[in-house]
Amino acid sequence: MVSTATLSRGQRPGDEWVTVRGDQTPGLTYYAATTTTSGRIVAVGNGGSLMTSNDGGANWEFGQIEINGTPVRGSITSIYQVPNGSLIAVMVRLEEANVGFFKYQARSYFLVSTDNGNNWSMSPFPKTFATFRGNGRAYHGVNITGLQMGPGGQLLAYGTISGTNNGITLWSLGGLIFRQTGGSWEQELFEYGPVGKIASAGGRAVATCHNAILDSADGAGWNGYEMSDAQVTVDGQPIDSKTRNRLRVLDVEVLGNGNYIAQGGTFVPYGSSTNIDTNIFEKVFSMSSPTPFSGARNWTAVTDDYHGPYTRVGDSVISAGAGGAYYTQVGGRFALGGADVRAPGTAIAVSGATTAVAVQSSETVWKSTNSGQAWVKVWDKDIGPDLQLRGYANGTLFARANNELWLSRDNGSSWQKSDTSFTGSSTILESDGGRLFSAAGPNVLVSDDGGTTWVEKSIGTNRGGFLLVRSATGRLIMPVRGWDVRNEGKFYVSDDNGETWSPRNAGLAFGEEVRAAVQTKSGRLIVASNTFSLFNPALHYSDDDGETWTSSTVLQSLEGLDTVTGDPATKVIQITRLRASSSGRVLAMGDHTILTSDDDGDTWVVRTNLDFNGTGPLDALDLRDVIQVGSRWIAIGSYSTPFPRSRTKHFLLISDDDGATWGMRPFETNQSNTFLYQLAEAENGRVVIVGGNASVFISDSEQLMLPQGESIVVREGKIESVPISRPDFDGIVEVNFSTLARTAVPDVDFKPIGGTLRWEADDMEDKFIALEILDNNVRDRERELLLQLGFETDSGFLGQMETSILIDDNDSGAAAGLIFDGIGHLYTSEAGAMASLGIALETKPTADVTVTVSGLDASEGQLSGDTFTFTPEDWGRQQTLTITGVDDPDPDGDSTYNLTFTLTTDDTSYANLSTTNVAVVNVGDEPLPPIGPVILSRLPVTFVTTADGSFLLTATGLDPDAVYQLESSDSLTSFANGQQVTGAQLMSGFAIPKNGTSNYFRIRESGQ
After folding, report:
1. DSSP strand pairing (712-715 vs 796-808)
2. 720-737 pLDDT, tens per residue?
3. Beta strand pairing status for 469-470 and 455-458?
4. From CA 834, how far away is CA 705, in angstroms rounded?
């Protein structure tokens, strides 16, 4: 039997991701804020987003309200600090119910923090229905919108009954007030309309209740009246009864002089209804009264604009919304204090008698120290716009944001704005002479200075497009939308570097929209199009460099695509990406489907169709982009869970067999508004993702690692890509693989797999097998399975081998120790790239364990912290150490230093552990000539550089008569067959001349 493969493992593109822009900084709007008794400002938003400041708003930290490590899900309506110091954020979400009128009912939750907003617990509001006193009927769907301490010292919760039957129209029925008494909640009110506000002052509570205003001396007994029974004068004249009947009270407060002010208005009615309002203002009034609950019920009103919810600051009231921040003057009239200030909802935190902080967003915060009369911006952090990738050329990543061109010359780690009038819509292409091109509608943009400046070149028509292809001959082809009613739509070509353009008949129908284009390995050009959105998908081919075109409707009857009518000849898909594999295979992606073709697009196979037809656990599923990096394909996509638990999830699709099979991996983002849009490959195989919230994620290029023993150890809950090297035989080679259980249990510990990998005669690239280890959340001993490989060529069977796969349990073993996540990928750079190391404990300690980090080389890196404490409660929760590379002017290449981790604790099982060293590499950014070869080998081989620049290889413990194969390359791929040397030659020292750029060498036994 011949051993024909070398197994190694290491990080592949897409395995690990680092956030370098956005996502960490939320770019969110916060709807409620408060100042705690310690002076901390806490702002909350939907989905539990959290924003805190400990210095009066000058600096902020961002987080998420989590319960047992999981972010909460729902709408945050308010935040309130009760007298005992606890913070309560009110969260409401729709939940499916089996009682009452509504299919989906509002359910209210209290999110409680007793440590100033650091940690939170959640409990449902105990009341799920209210009883209407008019008919005794119970109505389900309690929607709490606010909390207020009542005059009797009891906490009041107020809101309405809410629900929906279709997920679109949300109904609100009646006004609710509950009072907490003796630890339980009692219903005090359910009538009138929704309670929008309760304010307390002067020993009484006052509430707005849609078209009524109420007051109470104890929060239990409520008295009041509808505004139709009030005496309201506007500019000294009583308003008519019709307007009073339609007057809704939106907000109320009590000023320091005891006067009441209220915000009221009338709304445009819904159709001809006299009882149902739209949300469009008809008139808005600012109203005031010194004695609104006297027998006269007098209110003095002035017409005004809607300024936003009221917040009392000392003796004044601030109202801040879309039109700026206003404050009350004498008599209750409002004056403009800050035209640029915005504070959605009740996101104004009050501290002291005259100080208020308005949280406009995570990027902008305002502060007033004189009750809203003047404002100063105290927090202004612009994370920049969302980016749309436009490609990689000449060491630069290009992206567009609105009409701005952004550049990154460090593989996506940092971005700089270059041009403020860039209209290019296509991928940026590069000619042999270095000129850059981008389609821009009726023009083509060209740049001869690396993208700094751009010049428009007209294509001679206003029917331009957003796609641009550069063929192997250097010709530029712009496919455009079909505009000819005689089905003679034109594409445009240029043979002089974009200076002039001429049309070629492509046969597109009127309105036929081109979506994607590619040139295959054989030279064929393929363009995908649709008419009427995703209907009538068509492909257009050219085998003569874009001179003539033929069309195909092969996709309209392709087995495996979706159909709308049920007719198998009416399949639908909107192709958004066409890619050509290095193997010659063509890949197409559209909607939720990936197809491949091995005959230049003549026939296709559906490889994955993720259409769930709006049913089951996933909905609104979509694929965004796909690229090939090396031999790996990576796609990004998202899906939404069904209403009412609607939530967007993101994922990667990974294929290591040239698009034949795909595995889904979750892709977690920190913020709810971070979506994944596009992929790009940068230098040396680095992968870049851009998305919403101005986010950029990067995944480093492939890093080869040598196994430390005969077995491969895989962490539970991971998908490990196992590289398989091609055996050294001519012709086509195939390997049949499968997994075999030993102590590991199929479908419990791992997913059984089986299949075939194939190398064509000229294919020397490694192939990869994706091995998925399942997370069973149970503490287990080490388990083992076998990966079996059988190799064949055209002439017959070669041999087989087995490799042991050991499963490393992530639920903690029996021994104390540290768990590191990312220990093999700690690469920073002098350009400022960061690396992250996750740290946790293996077992629960009996006392706090403090991990101290030392050994930092301050000239090469900076640490986010040097101590981490784990308690018996959070010992298994991973903490993150971030290492940032530091620049220096010296051409010192890559620098390696060791971080030392020391444990201090009263737990003897941890206190007796020895220190742990972890290596960090800071990648240099100055030019450095090669100083020696990189050796890829499991043999005990080392090298030295001689005086003349050649390399001297030496080895120990080899078989002197064995023959070894020495191969070289200028990269980590495509090794060429080299010379053969004996073990005796290597043991005595074997000289390799300095050979151009070949600095990567692979050594293995001949025939292996």
Report:
1. parallel
2. 778 787 776 778 888 888
3. unpaired
4. 21
